[in-house]
């Protein structure tokens, strides 16, 4: 049998091979045997090289399972995939050799002897519509044939691979020249699973439809697919997405598969305008109805019995009496007659109005407050930033969020400026002019005033405007360059505490806080620590003060949004800590220039202020018996193991929750999850937001694999890995990630896929793109310690990802690359993306790349002049100035279309992206290339193909 | 005797000096047997209309340990242009400017009538006066309003170029920046945290850190005045600003049961601010407080309403838990303030105590004023405060700053100490005695603030040994050199040189006796007593006073043993026992019925007033008005209370008008409104006019009480008079003529 390379995914390791000492899945608790990469020995490389070379013999094996056929649309879309195998030139390495039997010469890492000049055939069958048929309800019945051997979604690939670059990670010695060099030795990228293809397939099959959440355990459309979601008893995937929608029924099985069981919960996610907002249930003084034993809230999982007089809790099975006021008769199928009238009975997500018992000190909360804290040190004054902020606030404060039914926002505002000392402002409406109160005791900061600090903007408008006019002038002559930071947060927190309300601080800061004060930081950035055991310290706060401060902030419902404008190292790991723990958002604008960067910053600020946010929140995730939430990742703070505390949570913040088995799960009952968030609304109402989701359980591994969602998996992996780097060396973390990928896939290969040659790589359909995504994660700058990458950037990314939802991580790790040279001007749609690889670029094309943080417009050297004219209003490529920070506002169809695409891309992302124009073969292209994630990275990250080889090798090892 | 009285009066008028003894016993032993120490009351800046200051520097003795100023007592050799110091006998060359000196052409300081002379010297830059208001905002709305008005009014009374500053405090302490336009700016401090002067200056941005010069940044030219003037601005520049600022002052807004008053920190910041910006220039920190400090360093009472402020009873029982710590805090502040040459005034207006006991040192050590009232909304406070800015006869403010008093004595005398609003400068020297009376161990004292009536008691010790007699006709000399900053910000030096005859106490006791100044002696002894009372138990002090009196009577009285009626004292001693009697009853030594604050307040004023005022305090004056004759002083005795008299009592702190029983009935019957009884109307009016006169001139303004026979307020009178009518009057010697009362 010739070998082929397949793409399968396995999370939980199968029966452990003798060689593997890791018996279970304790992700980062101990070091697994580093099966990958093993740069110390050349044997594995040789082994894989041999395998890979031998694959060339028959590079394509169709393993399409029964019941699945390539969809015509797909095959037409990718004719290349059926071009059939291409005969590789025969070499002496054709033979598949047993692993380790031959030791090739070392040093062949780059272009080893196995490198083949010819392109491998495109051989795949990724056009299968996936496991979920158009009617999700029938999925279980019609989607798949029974049997453990079923692997319809597996695709087989037999590409010819440049099987040499096995020294992943970090051993890539070549520079950019090699990157852009001849690719003839590469495997044909088209032959390996394409994320774009997967996305497009899902769009085609489920896009634009109504997705009703009426079935337990159904796999929702991908995050990239636009559809309308209808809550019919389970929370919308906008709120909760799971790594798998079918949990293994036992913990042994879970250990075997090693597929992480996790849910990514975004409790305040924005829903589309055409989707129903959450209903608010008000039971008056009685408050929410809860199970007596497990305290779960009334939800569709409660089973009413005894004619409706009692109900059985779906989570703990406790029988509870129905409160008299809530009593209702049951109908013939045992459902309450008022089922559809009560959101708490029929909807997956709804809100309760909380009673005083749920309030701090049993007092009704006050509306939250926003405090603007502006660094007025020399740099910020000089750069014009302070003036910019002040000017913007004048208009922005009219847009403070408010409840739909209310005329004005209940949010109060306050202002603080600071450099080495703090300046509070009294802007009471009765004053003739604002009063400034300087607090210089930064060692023990306090709030100097109570009355007049937090005011209603409408009432104090004129005096606030007066103040905002004056602030830039007041400090115009400043020469103070030192700043404080922790006392600023403290001050804001104390102010909120004194006002007895929750709220948010908006801190605009630019430099390392070196002034003598608590939380003083020094520049501890040290490139020498990279790739050592001490590298983790760079991600830890420099001083303990910040953690204690974060704890206090959370305890007082004080969220910190931090806008950083650094010119150099500012220790994001320390400064961002409070922001992270308090559910705040961190923004960072390197080398901020008012003229160039203000649109980006102002748009971020605007969005941030207008955001719908819940304050002083506490989240609790309850599960049905048999499993429980064990780990939480996100911009959260936890004092104990169950309560997730957040000073605030906004629509973009997601908490990833990992579950573990306690016991066996019953396939009948499934796995139920209820996430309840108690919070204070923007109008100062205490509310409970409840999201419920039911998952299936199965004792069949195949069920689990087919219900997986790769995007959620990557979200989980990214968050858990980014957390792990705080305690473990990067290398270990990376090894664990690779290892787990291999285990998941190997388990599938072993237990679910139809028997085939060991050298064949088989990927479950739902995890088809796991390797490429995983590779993207491994290449992310957080996990790559290279001196060229600023430490702050890594810490920044680490922090961002920690609170990201599934949609954001998806595009963050695998950027969107849109060809715009071939726009269909008549169609509104955004063009289909292409894979993030240099090969997809063309000299005659223009491409837009976006990852949620960065936005590039790449222009090939022979971009059509009409396109250039249309966009830039200059005659030729040579005339384009990359200095230009924004495109000219042109009135032509092309420019309009381009703008609308930009707008569309931007609208889905929490951060505003600044457009960078990159011309082919000019210096800034280097920056751009980092985002071509399927290629080898200049920082040593493996290319997709190489990584696939590695994973494959790992799998082979696990299987052998 | 009339000559001695005249002599004493003349000396007082010319030199502002009253000695207990005007002929000095010539040996140490004899001096101690005199019981009343050789001492003087010195009013350094006594107003002298006839004394134009000279515009040159004084000539000093060249001996480094002496440095006495050339004075009329020096022997001058006009030919050799030499003069001999009368203290150390050093022969000194006249400076070149005195080349033209001759018997007929003498400089003023050599003329006998210029035993007191004032020099104006030009030294160093002149800095304007500084007034730093430290204002409590934990007041009732009404009080705060009144205080604000008083403060605003005071701006117009300040010298135009004076610098003013404003600190307000409540729970927090705010230092207001006065130079800002468009926005009012203040630095805020926590009221509970004690800060060092350095920290305060750092936090106010007053210290001047070595700013590293950053390339590409405009170099800031150092501008010292700009920095310091952020908080202290010339009044003419910012009076509008400050008036508005004061107008906008709000009551402390923090929700509390008992106002949180951070007086300790506020004062500390005020001291630190001036310390950092204007050391050794004339500055007044004026503290206006409406209650006791309740938090932070210097707190006097807790913020729980249930715990009352300490009383004498608590203090005796050692039950005043904040007192020692608070006192220590304020003492430290007072010492720093004094070291900087600034002064602290305390204007405390509240019905209850405000912690003057703990804070008294701030005013006492720095020469500041202490004013106690019931409310800022009383004329007592308003007028008193206004009087702080009174001007003297030549249109100059009656205040001087940063004085140092240097006392030089001839070698038979040594300096034992001083009692008054001063601190020691620790100037040791040959003329400093080892025995201390009052603040001793030095020949120099600093008086941070003084006015023309400020009077110090200075105690001497005769050190001449008995076996080394002073030649007949020898004279002892004392020179007082007071350098101070005049209110016009000039530096001035006033030099007073006096001399007295020595007399052998054995052969010439009658001379010494005749030259006894019993008034001065009474005040000097009283000061010693009050000084002791601050640190000793009340009864001990009384016992000491009694013993002194007995010893004095033993020494100078004439009596037959076991025959009390035979006891006689000469006229120069006749009033002294009476003074002592009233002193024993006075609030300066008796704490009964007075709060600790009141005692501190009374003692504060007693230790600084001149002789006349001090005597009034010891023994209040009682005037009687009746149809029997013109108004006359009468005995401070219950026998003076007659139905047909109106009495006017002046205790310095109170003016009481008391209508006798009949007079009161007449008044009720309305006789004064009948034209035919116009004389009754005049009689009623006369004491009012006299009282008004006293009220107009006294600082602080006394409490004015108008009462009548049987009125509740009559207690003020009844508690002062000698209760002779309820006891057998054993004090035959107490029956002195009314004329001698004054």
UniProtKB/TrEMBL annotation, chain B:
Q: Does the keyword Nucleus apply?
A: no
Q: Does the keyword Protein transport apply?
A: yes
- SUPFAM superfamilies xrefs: beta-sandwich domain of Sec23/24 (SSF81995), C-terminal, gelsolin-like domain of Sec23/24 (SSF82754), Helical domain of Sec23/24 (SSF81811), vWA-like (SSF53300), Zn-finger domain of Sec23/24 (SSF82919)
Topological type in the membrane: Peripheral membrane protein
InterPro entries given in the database record: ADF-H/Gelsolin-like_dom_sf, Beta-sandwich_Sec23_24, Gelsolin-like_dom, Gelsolin-like_dom_sf, Sec23, Sec23/24_helical_dom, Sec23/24_helical_dom_sf, Sec23/24_trunk_dom
**Any one GO BP annotation for this protein:** intracellular protein transport
The Sec23/Sec24 helical domain extends over: 517-615
What Pfam families has UniProt attached to this entry?
Answer: Gelsolin, Sec23_BS, Sec23_helical, Sec23_trunk, zf-Sec23_Sec24
Describe the family membership recorded for this protein in Swiss-Prot or TrEMBL: Belongs to the SEC23/SEC24 family. SEC23 subfamily.
Function per UniProt: Component of the coat protein complex II (COPII) which promotes the formation of transport vesicles from the endoplasmic reticulum (ER). The coat has two main functions, the physical deformation of the endoplasmic reticulum membrane into vesicles and the selection of cargo molecules for their transport to the Golgi complex.
Q: Which protein is depicted? A: Protein transport protein SEC23
What is the source species? Answer: Cuculus canorus
Organism phylogeny: Eukaryota, Metazoa, Chordata, Craniata, Vertebrata
